[in-house]
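Supplementary Text 2. Reproducibility record for the structural model of the 112-residue chain.

All settings were left at their defaults, and a single model was retained for analysis rather than an ensemble. We include the record here because the model underlies the residue-level annotations in Supplementary Table 4.
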Amino acid sequence: MTEEQQKTGQEMGLMAHEHPQWDDFIDRLSGPEGCNFRLAVPGNKDSLTWTCDSDGGYQLSTQILASMGLRPDEIEESMSYFHENGGCCDCEILFNVAVPLDSPEESVESGQ
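Retained model, structure tokens:
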């Protein structure tokens, strides 16, 4: 959120693919501040690990969205959007919502 948005109380809106800060949110959620995707054994892609409470509480996402300036009602609306689109916990937002199933990346990976 810019200083101007904070001063005027401007709405940030639902965090979704169309949101101007979507990429920043996904970067933060996948990084050390969020799920912290990393290799447990450097250089071994089979050792990929991450942090997630998996209880559907969205603790990491909620903290990140709040720090980005979203209001509580916008965060709640975003969590509903994530859940409706297969993001039932923080890491599933990255697995299921960040890259929609009909995206070019998914088609390439699945051989379609």
